[in-house]
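Journal club prep, shared notes

We agreed each person brings one worked example of a sequence with its structure written out as tokens. Mine is Transposase. I'm keeping it raw so we can talk through how to read the token line rather than staring at a rendered picture. Sequence first:
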Amino acid sequence: MLNREDWLMIREMREKGCYLREIAEEVGCSERTVRRALLRGGPPPRRRSGIRSSKLDPYKAQVDRLLAEGVWNATVIFAEIQAMGYRGGISILRDYIRPKQAQRKPKGTVRFETAPGRQLQSDWGQIETEVGGRLLRVHFAVNTLGYSRRFHVWAAPCADAEHTYEGLIRAFEHFGGVPGEVWVDNQKAAVLAHGLDGGVRFNPGFLALAAHYGFRPKACRPHWPQTSAPPGV
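Then the structure, token by token:
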């Protein structure tokens, strides 16, 4: 495409009486292009400069915040901004994240200490074992104190709400007291949903248990590496 300097050369050569073929050879274009430039009577209009807008633009601040907090999984970030109204594709998001990978901090392990009796982490696990000649799946509740790392394990036929609460009660009895906070790993017996604002909707049964025994319910955020376990656990 001709620029302003090309057009000035075309006009100057034409005023000197040069043929269209000669002008085209000098400028490096076709005779048809030279003819159109002369008919237009002026230089080509300047193109507007600027960066093309993207559907991701309104959500880049949220993406940057998640990256700063250590969330680099594009699928997780995609789900977060979709819930906020994003209607673009995940490929645009991946293209935005890719150049920032160099800023990603290496993972490190930091141990946080908590006061005695402050926190307890409640988790479920499962194993397959042979009982009476039959292979059975056994669930077990593991409740661990944040300060001493002491833990209580209780086996159960399933990991439902009833057995989750009973496992905690048995742990309280075993430890001889109730911690200030009980952290759970998002099992439905304790957590029903996480809000985009960071709020948690707890299971009413779990809230009733917390009110009865006097502990504060806490939930780890799903897919977030910093909260896969609470500080001190």
